[in-house]
Specification:
Helix content is about 55%, strand content about 5%. By secondary structure, it is mostly helical. Helix 4 packs antiparallel against helix 5, helix 5 packs antiparallel against helix 6 and helix 10 runs antiparallel to helix 11. The longest helix has 26 residues. The radius of gyration is 22 Å and the shape is globular.
Length: about 375
């Protein structure tokens, strides 16, 4: 579909550029390109991040030439910072390190970019925008970030296995951060630390951990002439082993059609003779249905409609609505729709992270009207 190509093309370009230009050994380049977040997460699941690797690589390439091409470097930082709040923080840190070489026009240009992006992040607060719903559960978020970045979920199958994986992941993560801080103090302070603090203060999603991995890659690239310690090399090899294992597991599940219930929903609607025009799409956390309804793709990321509202307001449906689709299992929605004659059918997902972390659940809840009940 067009939606898949829109994420696949920039991701493939980023991987190609990385394999050709990165100053790492061939085994490290191939291993990095095969890691879970590059191979699968930012290509299939969190598709809005598919631009990240490409602009991370461009940033790394221009870092060495920033004094000769200050304007080009500034523009690339602006593109990088436009992808997410995490990369926005990173681009600010990179520009701070670049300040001594930057000229007045680059400083003014980047300052304008920052001002405009802040306006986008903090819109009219009467709206129910995502930025209002950041939650500060620092301990839980830190545990998730640490374990998912490293070794979490490898053998997790129960309570004690979860504890072991989380503890092992936290221990590994702390050792890795200590090693990076010891070798790259300035880069750690300006590039990695702001994102670590941000992740510990906002609503956590598993795919955010991949951003830390890209930042670490960028730090190692910018300092490639500096020999890394044997300890750090061991940490990197362990990380590659875990991440490639994730990629294989995710690929096997995707091959079995377990990522999303979207195809099953599409077939069911067809079976019930319900067209897309007769289906009302509420806000939900997946783009997996876009190939089946690309004309309405903008609604899939409309988080301010119903998704994060604690008290869901009554839904006003058009007369033509024969089906209502959402990924949020809310009692208020269920009560209203069932009272209007809708029948609920649940389409579960066995996505790689969905069974371990409900924030990435791709289960789809379809409310539909049987023929004769309209």
């Amino acid at each position: 579909s067009k939606v898949y190509l829109a994420s696949l093309i920039p991701q493939a370009a980023g991987v190609t550029l990385f394999l050709k230009k990165a100053p790492f050994p061939l085994w490290a380049r191939l291993a990095f390109a095969s890691t879970y977040f590059i191979f699968y997460q930012y290509n299939i699941v969190a598709r809005s991040y598919s631009l990240m690797l490409f602009f991370f690589v461009l940033t790394a390439l221009l870092w060495q030439k920033r004094e000769k091409h200050p304007l080009a470097y500034t523009i690339v930082l602006m593109f990088l910072g436009s992808i997410s709040v995490h990369t926005f923080l990173l681009s600010i840190g990179l520009f701070v390190l670049f300040m001594p070489q930057a000229k007045t026009k680059e400083k003014l240009l980047f300052a304008t970019f920052v001002a405009l992006l802040v306006c986008l992040l903090f819109p009219d607060m009467t709206t129910n925008s995502y930025i209002k719903h950041f939650t500060g559960n620092m301990f839980v978020t830190l545990v998730h970030t640490m374990s998912l970045t490293t070794c979490g979920l490898i053998t997790a199958a129960g309570f004690y296995e979860d504890i072991f994986c989380a503890a092992f992941g936290i221990f590994y993560f702390c050792l890795l951060m200590t090693e990076l801080l010891g070798q790259y103090k300035k880069d750690f302070a300006f590039l990695l630390l702001p994102n670590l603090l941000f992740m510990a203060a906002v609503s956590y999603k598993p795919w955010h951990a991949g951003i830390l991995i890209l930042i670490i890659m960028l730090i190692l690239w910018q300092n490639h002439s500096q020999k890394i310690s044997k300890t750090l090399l061991v940490y990197i090899i362990l990380f590659f082993m875990v991440q490639i294992y994730w990629s294989i597991r995710a690929f096997v599940q995707e091959k079995n059609g377990a990522y999303s219930a979207a195809p099953a929903v599409h077939d069911f609607l067809k079976q019930k003779n319900i067209s897309i025009n007769e289906t009302e799409f509420l806000s939900f956390n997946t783009t997996s249905l876009c190939p089946y309804d690309e004309t309405n793709s903008c609604t899939y990321w409309d988080w301010c409609k119903y998704g994060f509202i604690k008290k869901v307001k009554p839904i006003v449906l058009p007369q033509s609505a024969k089906a209502v689709l959402t990924t949020w299992d809310r009692k208020t929605i269920n009560k209203q729709l069932t009272s209007q004659g809708f029948v609920l059918k649940v389409f579960p997902s066995e996505h790689f992270f969905a069974t371990r972390d409900m924030s990435t659940d791709e289960t789809i809840y379809l409310y539909y009207k049987e023929s004769g009940n309209e």
